[in-house]
Amino acid sequence: MVRHLTKISDFTKEECALIIQKAIEMKENPEKFNSTMQHKTMLMIFEKPSLRTRVSFETGLSQLGGHAIFYSIKDSPLGKKENIADTVRCAARYVDIIGARVFKRQDILELAKYSDVPIINMLDDFAHPCQMLCDFQAIQEKKGKLTGLKISYYGDAYNNVTYDLMRIAAIFGMEMDVACPEGAEYSPEQEVLDEIAELSKKSGAKIRVVHDALEAAKNSDVLYTDSWMSYGIPAEQEEARKKVFMPFQVNPKVMSAAKPDAIFMNCLPAMRGYEQTAEVIDGPQSIVFDQAENRLHAQKAIILFLLNKF
Questions:
Q1: Which of 42, 91, 152, 212 could form a disulfide with 220 if both were Cys (CB 3.0 to 4.6 A apart)?
Q2: Is residue 186 assigned to a domain?
């Protein structure tokens, strides 16, 4: 049966741990895997641009001995000239695996429904699973474990990264505080909260939404934030959003309320003076560039897992 990665909860805790461990192995011994994808091709469908996603996937395929094709759909949107089912049925005849970075979750689900090869969600409005596995690889490397930890997320919680971060924290039975402004437009969707509740029943995770930055930081091992100005936010709304989110900026006061050995993470891009201060992101507790590097390693591991090459 073809497996897809549409959101991080498509994988079990055991599968996530296996992929993370393989990513660490590939990071330490890249030459061991340099022909694993020989004569294999990945199609990368991009509706939304990304430096890290494109470069890490293309580099990863090259390092594995394979080939990646970048295909922009900016001028030829999915489902316009032909339906998504026809597009993916055709593409699957040419390539071994497909990644898509799109605006709408429904497009990812349609691709997965009709594809005969694995689909990797490289980002949509509901999930960012590749980011989660690289993040948890970084946490494993820095903390030496993925259980018994508390993560605190700050900022916009009506957000794909927040949703998948909540999912993976629930999968691993973690404690997590999501610190965000009050209001439905800044808070997780009910569908996500319901899923988190079900995952937490199985794992014993304790995940809550709070509206106080310092409260969220208490006893935290990992402080995490994401852009306040996601793609599609009109320029004229930026100042108003900044005002709303400023109480949830990760600054030295917030960092000092967490554990002394807490680490700071941001999936990038980052704006100093917005979601975090320069002292935090450029300070000794920040691991943002280790985190970013792991996109390369985690994604290689995801590809091999989905293609049954472990």
A1: 152
A2: yes
Answer whether the bond into residue 269 is a cis peptide, omega within 30°: yes
Copy the structure tokens of residue 11: 């994988």
Regarding whether 12 and 113 lie in a shared domain, the answer is yes
C-alpha–C-alpha distance, residues 153 and 248, integer Å: 9
pLDDT reading at 81 higher than 90: no
Cβ atoms 37, 302 nearer than 8 A:
no
Same domain, 161 and 254: yes
Residues 175 and 280 occupy one common structural domain: yes
Task: Tell me how many degrees the CA angle 191-193-198 measures, rounded to the nearest 5.
Answer: 95
DSSP 173-235: T-EEEEE--SSGGGS--HHHHHHHHHHHHHH--EEEEES-HHHHHTT-SEEEE--SS-TT--G
User: Cα separation of 51 and 39, whole Å?
Assistant: 25
The answer to whether residue 105 sits within a structural domain is: yes
Please give the average per-residue pLDDT across 228-237, as a whole number: 80
Residue 1 lies in a domain: no
Whether 114 and 180 map to the same domain: the answer is: no
Q: Is the dihedral angle over the CA atoms 215, 180, 7, 280 positive or is it negative?
A: negative
Q: What is the mean pLDDT of residues 27-47?
A: 97
Question: What is the domain-level CATH number for residue 204?
Answer: 3.40.50.1370
Q: How many domains would you assign to the chain?
A: 2
Which residues are known catalytic residues? 101, 128, 131, 226, 267, 295
**What is the tens place of the pLDDT at every residue in 95-112?**
999 999 999 999 999 999
| Cβ atoms of 296 and 4 closer than 8 Å | no
Q: Chain centroid to CA 90: how far?
A: 28
